[in-house]
UniProtKB/TrEMBL annotation:
The keyword DNA damage applies. Belongs to the DNA polymerase type-Y family. Gene3D superfamilies: 3.30.70.270, 3.40.1170.60. This is DNA polymerase Y family protein. It holds the Pfam family IMS. Coiled coil: none annotated. Keywords: DNA damage.
């Protein structure tokens, strides 16, 4: 796949934001300022102020001498970075890879994305129109390299979409500053009369290195595509992701369902080619007002069964609020596992594979009450009740030992035993009565004791003597006495409930 990048330049980023916050300033010359070395200097000037000859870096006192009625506002520290981060998150509707280019731009890796909008020209036009609609002045360009796109977006005077392989031609008429060089290097080039890239791009590399250092050569190679440039995305790109833009905003549940099914079919086809299945999936809808709507599902075992996955999502589609319409749908699978064709064939068989039936049932229950309400436990090689089991996250995980069946165990074990007050006729006998949460229980039947010693190599303490008891209402409980009567008055606890 041909790698392509887009550079977006917000040339009035903070002042545009200020106008959005204070619309009355739209036609008023104003600047943002901050203290610098004991002086108040301009950090940003809007278009009206620039038309009066006021630019970034000037001292505010000098600006007022030029234009006495100039309005000055305090610049908010870190505001530009916050805005860029928000725009980078917004741009994820167009590409999975978006990076911040401080202090006034974004870099997008748009490889394989533009065709969804009908080509790079429509893609670029749509992004610029959206940002202009939000009240921000931007310029953007597309090229094979970050350096070329960055240069043309800021200093280009030609078509902003550079055809593949033609980044050198696009750079020739640009000033040296377009290569993102240090100020000292730019000054040195100007003193030698090298006012455009064309004047030195074909000079011997040894001469350029000797006069201007390796940084110039590195920036040239990055812009030309001879040296790879790494960008730092705001969030890692999901390797399993499908996108579906809408020519008209979608506002109805049937439209959302059609988009979801198409994305599931595309994603599951890809997963099938790679012998994988998903365990977690997220369906996102980007509204035309910039808001994001999303729902997610999880599965008990890896699956690429379109119908099963669609039914899980279908339970949550009603929670999506399309408002004025959704312009882009996205489906991503952040968690996938290996799933061979033989394993996937089990999903097509009914009645003879309990594991598949259980997995489907659990997925549907999780979609209604939440995955956190469902737990699977496996036996662990410990006698101490709290340590005798472990929680499993997959139906495919196998136990390392067998459940103990030689002694009764409660179906509901409390995570922490709760203290109770008991009445015991004589030591080593089960209780006659016990109080639990303010209720008196009369014991009609009892069995025990079963002594369970602590695993001293893990934890020190006294042993427990457990009793299975039944009260007058037929409810059954698992009680224990901690320690001996010989060591003082022992404490009693309730640890579990039988069915």
């Amino acid at each position: 796949m041909q790698q392509r990048f887009m550079a977006i330049w917000f040339y009035h980023l903070t002042t545009n934001w200020w106008v959005r916050k204070h619309p009355e300033l739209k036609d008023v010359p104003f600047v943002l300022s901050a203290s610098e070395r004991g002086r108040i200097v301009v950090t940003a000037a809007n278009e009206k102020a620039q038309a009066k000859g006021i630019t970034k870096g000037m001292v505010v006192a000098d600006c007022r001498a030029i234009f006495p009625t100039l309005q000055v506002f305090d610049d908010l520290e870190g505001q530009a970075e916050k805005l860029l981060h928000a725009f980078a998150e917004w741009s994820l509707r167009y590409t999975p890879v978006a990076a911040i280019d401080l202090s006034d731009g974004l870099i997008l890796d748009i490889s394989g994305c533009a065709h969804l909008w009908g080509g790079e020209e429509n893609y670029l036009k749509d992004i610029i129109q959206k940002l202009n609609g939000y009240g921000y002045h931007v310029r953007a360009a597309i090229a094979d390299t970050v350096g070329a796109a960055w240069a043309v977006a800021r200093y280009g005077r030609t078509y902003p979409i550079i055809p593949p392989g033609q980044q050198k031609e696009a750079l020739l008429g640009l000033p040296p500053v377009a290569l993102r060089l240090e100020e000292t290097t730019i000054d040195r080039l100007k003193k030698l009369g090298l006012y455009t890239v064309q004047r030195f791009i074909d000079m011997p590399r040894s001469s350029l290195r000797r006069r201007f250092g390796v940084a110039l050569l590195s920036r040239l190679d990055q812009a030309l595509g001879l040296e790879k440039e790494i960008i730092q995305p705001i969030q890692p790109a999901q390797p399993y992701q499908e996108r579906l833009p809408s020519f008209e905003p979608i506002r109805t549940a049937p439209g959302i369902e059609i988009a979801l099914r198409r994305l599931l079919e595309a994603l599951c086809t890809r997963l099938g080619c790679e012998e994988k299945g998903l365990r977690h999936a997220i369906f996102k809808g980007y509204r035309i007002d910039g808001a994001l709507q999303q729902i997610s599902i999880g599965t008990g075992k890896a699956s690429r069964n379109v119908e099963h996955l669609f039914k899980l999502f279908e339970l949550k589609i009603a929670s999506i609020e399309p408002d004025l319409g959704i312009e882009l749908f996205l489906l991503e699978a952040p968690v996938v596992e290996d799933l061979t064709s033989e394993q996937e064939a089990l999903w097509a068989v009914s009645g003879s594979h309990d594991e598949v039936v259980i997995a489907e049932l659990l997925d549907k229950i999780a979609g209604k009450i939440g995955a956190n309400a469902i737990h699977r436990f496996l036996p662990a090689e410990h006698y101490w009740p709290e340590w005798s089991f472990v929680q499993s996250t997959s139906l495919q995980e196998k136990p390392q030992t067998e459940w103990r069946i030689d002694q009764p165990r409660p179906v509901h074990l409390l995570p922490v035993p709760e203290p109770i007050n008991v009445t015991v006729p004589i030591p080593d006998y089960p209780p006659m009565l016990f109080h639990y949460k303010g209720t008196l229980h009369k014991v009609k039947k009892a069995d025990g004791p079963e002594r369970i010693e602590r695993e001293w190599w893990i934890d020190a303490g006294e042993h427990r003597d457990y009793y299975c008891v039944e009260d007058e209402n037929g409810a059954r409980y698992w009680l224990f006495r901690l320690g001996h009567y010989a060591s003082g008055e022992p404490k009693w606890f309730l640890h579990g409930f039988f069915a």
